[in-house]
Structures are given as structure tokens and as C-alpha cells.
Amino acid sequence: MTAASFPDPTSTDRAAPDAGAVGARDASGSPGADGACDVLVVGGGINGAGIARDLAGRGWKVVLAEASDFAAHTSSSSTKLIHGGLRYLEYYEFSLVRKALQEREVLLRSAPHIMWPLRFVMPHDAAMRPAWMIRIGLLLYDHLARREVLPGSEGVDLRRSPYGEPLKAEYTKGFVYSDGWVDDARLVLLNALDAREHGAVLHTRTTVTAAKRHADHWTATLRCADGDRTLKARALVNAAGPWAEGFLREVAAPARGEALATKSLRLVKGSHIIVNKRFQHDHAYIFQNPDKRIIFAIPYEDDFTLIGTTDVELAPDALAGFGKARIDEREIAYLCEQASRYFREPVVASDVVWTYAGVRPLLDDASGDPSAVTRDYLLETHSDGGAPLLSVWGGKITTFRKLAEDAADLLGDLLGDRRRAWTEHAHLPGGDLRDWIGAPQRPDTDFQRLLSAVGQRHPWLPPSLARRLARAYGARLGRVLGGAERLDDLGPEIAPGLHQAELEYLVREEWARAADDVLWRRSKLGLHYTEGQRMAVLQWFAEREHLWANPPAAAA
Prior knowledge:
By secondary structure, the protein is of the alpha/beta class. Helix content is 28%, strand content 23%. It contains 14 helices and 21 strands. The protein has helices at residues 46-57, 94-110, 131-143, 184-197, 244-250, 329-340, 400-414, 434-437, 443-457, 463-473, 477-481, 500-509, 515-522, 531-542; strands spanning 36-42, 62-65, 81-82, 115-123, 154-157, 173-182, 201-203, 207-213, 218-224, 227-238, 252-253, 265-276, 284-288, 294-300, 304-308, 312-314, 352-363, 377-382, 389-394, 493-495, 498-499. It starts with 35 loop residues before the first strand and ends in a 14-residue tail after the last helix. The model is unreliable at 1-30 and 552-556 (pLDDT under 50).
């Protein structure tokens, strides 16, 4: 089946009405218990969730509204790398690269179950860049920020290395360096969970349809499944990603009614293809292309290889409403062609088993080439005498924590009460493994220790299921299993390896409201299932739509 005819991952989505946050603090689904908060965050991607988490941890009363599901768009459609951005050195983005490199190991330590080190192989093509230039770039990459976990770069003879086996014989020399991997959608979920555990109220499938600015507060209208609600907030955060510019122009209204001046965004689509596994080792590849771009080929979900990404500039209105980005045939052809320049076995369109695309909302810096547009972020404050407004422009997943920290500092200044930052040394939910393994050692080996501990405590779990659950939930695994003492205690197996107990957990604690929330964001099980198996999950949700008006409360 070609990518053009492959079912879109949203095709099974029959979104049930969402009652708002699922949790003991907001079981009723009202925007806020008293209709007021300190900060309203608009947008449930990585930046919005990260800002809500940071603010809530500083003691601010926070409400977040997301029009779709957490990570429904850009934040679940990345190349899923925690990286400094080696190629950005060519554009002299030294500050951005250093900031991202500093964050790599901070993030790896915070959630070793969803993030881990990954080594990259760069085959050398003399027609692209001379070897000395690559060597200097990698030395700079190694030393721009302190490394404690990730090993440095080195040269490799591809003729004598397993990393050269999948490649064409002409590639005899290469380089190996370190970055990291992340389950991007679960990273957003963990930030949302931590925000809630620190007192924030979070709503999915809730649109902010109006926000009016007053001298000392904002009045916002939130459209939920059961009607409109009004919320009063001392400050407003615009973290709407690709829709941030439109939000300011169409929704946020100053006291005098004139439109707010906005920055200009460039919407750049990045598309990826998934093919069956092309190599057996655990390293990834970075390939240099004749157009001076790069693509990655990355081990993915055990059985597959992820290849991406493209850089295709979109028109400003390309995502009218909350539309989903789609790959096109030219992008598929491009990725296949560039990967085939390196792989011994060509990659063709008929090899593609799944595709996904996301839109990066990049700050317009007047670069002619979409690949050269800065991936750095800008936090813009609008404080012309009215209540504080902060807009997030640009950014990348690796620097989300630092962005959130900077945003919380700015908001504290605007509200007259800067509070201490706290996230740099904090674990994300499930990331503190001490109750399972004792004192942490290294993020990469700590996960292997967790797997051993899970096997000892729950020997009845099939190894493949134990590994998947440990990867997804880390130290929160016990919340999924409950008091189960045998496999049957997890309830019916709705689809292979997916039991009712896990689905109930995802509804109860992780805002899951539809099959796609589970199959394509909270997990990637949809990639492994047949159409019939995916439909079984859809049916499970369809039979429970009547429950969403009064969801079960999560454990506090």
C-alpha cells in the first residue's frame, strides 16, 4: 500500500465530548473552580504544557485550554530528537545550538523512560562537505556544552563496521556522534500530568473563542462540549503554535478593541515516512543531500525505520481552523530519493507503511530558504497598560523546558512576583525510578534496571508488554497495573497487548477520549495493528461515549 492510499492516522478519530480535565481537582469540567485564575494558557502542545507545568510548580493558579488533544499537531509530528541541531552550525546559530546542547542531558535525566541517548552515523560524501569541515563541526558540537552522559564524536571505517553494511559500497568513511531520542507526544503528556499534579486545571477539546483585555485582567470565553464558560485571568499566554498569529488577530482583543500587533510566522511543513526496518543495529543515520539539507533514518518502534524530514513552506492560511498537515507525493518522492542515495537497497514509495507531517511555526527572520529559518524562540510581552499577555514565537522541542522557565520568569515580573525556577533538576512524572531501582546512575542504564525490576515484581507480564509499559509509564507503571497479580486481572485484551485496564487508566488519568488519542499519540500501537484491530479500539471508545460527561476522577 503506498503512502498516498494509506489511512490517515486521524481517520479513526471519533472524538467524544470532553468534559474538561480528568482529575480530582476538576471532575466537574468547569474552566476553574471559582471562574478565576492567575494565568490562562492557550495551547496544549509542548510549549503550552511546559509553561503550565512551570507556572503551577511555582504556585500560580493555572488553567490551560487546548482545542484538540494534547500534542495533536506539531508536538507529536517531530523527528523525535533531543538534539542541539548540528546543521544549525552552518547558519551560525551558535547560541541556539549551545542552549539546546545544554538541555539534552537535563531532559534525559528527567524522564529516562521516554528519552534516551542515540548515536548517529554520518557517512562522508566528499561532494557535499570536506571531511575536515565535518570534523571541526563535530568537535565544536562536542564542546559547546558540558557532557556527562553522552559520548563524544569519532571517525568510523564503514568498510569494517556494521554501520556500513546497509550503505552503498562507495561510502567508506564516516563519523559517529551523540544526541538523544524522545517520545514527543508522551513528553507533552508528562508535562500536562505534572502541571495537574501541581494544581493546574487542564482542558482538552476546549476552544478559547474570545479573550478581552482589561486594565488588570482578561475575560475569556471557553467553548467546551456542553457550552460556553467564562473565565477571568490575571494574565494570558498565547502558546497556540501555528495558530499563535491568528489568535492575536482574531481572538485576543485589547480594552479599546483594536487588533494587537503581531510578529510574523513562517509555517514550514516537515513530513516523515515510515518503512520496514532497513538495518539491524541501534544507531541512526544522518544523510547530507545535494540541496544542502539533511535527513535522518532512525530505528523506530522496533520493526521500522523513520525517515525525515522535509522543509516545505506553507501559505499563512494553510491550517484554517485546526486542520491536520498532510504529506504530499513530492515529499514522499524526495525522502525516498535522498535515502536511496545512501542505502544499498533503494527506498521506494511502495515501501512506505505510514506517514505523518507537522507544521513548525517558525519566527520569520527573512531567510529565503525555509531550512535556514531560525529554530530559536522569542517570548514577546504585550504590556501597553493592560493586563499581561505573553506570546510564544518559534522554538523547538529540545529547548521547551528552558522556554517555559523563561516564560514563567517573565510572567512573574509582569505580575509583580517573580518566583523561583524549579524544573532543571526535577523529574517528569514516571521519571523518578528510585522506588524501583534505588539511586539513579545513568539515564540509559537506569531504564534497563527498571526493566529488571518490573520483571521481578510482575513475572506474569509477557516481556514485550512489560517493556512497552515501562517505556510509556516508567515509575507510574503501578497505576496502570493497579493491583493485578496475573494477566487476566488486566481485563479483556481489546487489541494485541492492549488491555482494558490500560485504556481505563488512559481515560482516567491521561485525558484520552478517542481511539486515536491512544493509537497514535499516547502510544504508536496503531502502527503495529491491522485495520480490524484499530477498529476494536475505536469500538471500545464508542461504547463509552456516554461516560465522558462525568469522567472518573484520577487519583490525587
